[in-house]
Amino acid sequence: MTTTYEQDFFTWTQEQATYLKQGRLELLDLEHLAEEVADMGRSERRELASRLAVIITHLLKLQVQTQRTSANEKSWRRSIIEQRRAVSSHLSENAGLKNPLQSASAFDTAWVDGLSVALRETGLDPDLFPEDNPYRLEQLLDPDFWPSVSSAAP
Q1: pTM for this structure?
Q2: Nearest Cα to 27, choosing from 10, 14, 36, 37?
Q3: Is residue 25 one of the residues assigned to a domain?
Q4: Which residues of 94-128 are buried (b: 16+ CB within 10 A; e: fewer)?
Q5: Is residue 106 part of a domain?
Q6: Helical residues (DSSP H) of 8-99, grouped into ranges
Q7: Which domain of life is it from (predicted)?
């Protein structure tokens, strides 16, 4: 007996995998399988956008937030370094995300999300932040790129 997609998603996935391995193509739920495969791709793009958003958030904090501790600055820099490493690895495993259309979509989402988080976490006047994304994708990924940093107040 075949479990339906709507009844029990987990069991459905296991059955579909078994049918694929056994070559029992007539038992496959092709409509839902196609949806799930497409969702997997979107999930990879969301992960890229999420990691880029973290980089943008911390770059903006470095650039704009003058009232910060050296511990905050070190934490933001460590986060940027870690996210750059993770993005590089993610792109190595998912080369299709380097496609300009895919990377542009992720980059646009990352800017909106990163700016939103930076605004919320700093509580600073939105006018202190750039209206448009000042970074290029290449800069976000460049381990040697750091924005001009405002001095922390004593």
Answers
A1: 0.84
A2: 14
A3: no
A4: eeebeeeebbebbbebbbebbbebbbeebebeeee
A5: yes
A6: 9-22, 30-64, 70-93
A7: Bacteria
Half-sphere exposure of 128 (CA within 13 A, CB side): 15
Mean pLDDT of the chain: 92
Q: Where are the alpha helices (DSSP H) in 65-151?
A: 70-93, 100-122, 137-141
**Residue that has been written with the tokens 């007539």 in this structure:** 26
Number of Cβ within 10 Å of residue 146's Cβ equals 13
- 148, part of any domain: no
Here the tokens at position 71 are: 């511990």
Q: Give the list of residues 6+ apart from residue 119 with CB closer than 8 angstroms, or none.
A: 126, 129
Are 119 and 61 in contact by the 8 Å Cβ rule? The answer is no
Give tens-digit pLDDT for 25-55. Answer: 999 999 999 999 999 999 999 999 999 999 9
Instruction: Fill in the amino acid letter for 25.
Output: L
Residues in the chain: 154
CA pair distance 87, 48, nearest whole angstrom: 6
The answer as to whether 120 is a domain residue is yes
CA 39/CA 42 separation, integer angstroms: 5
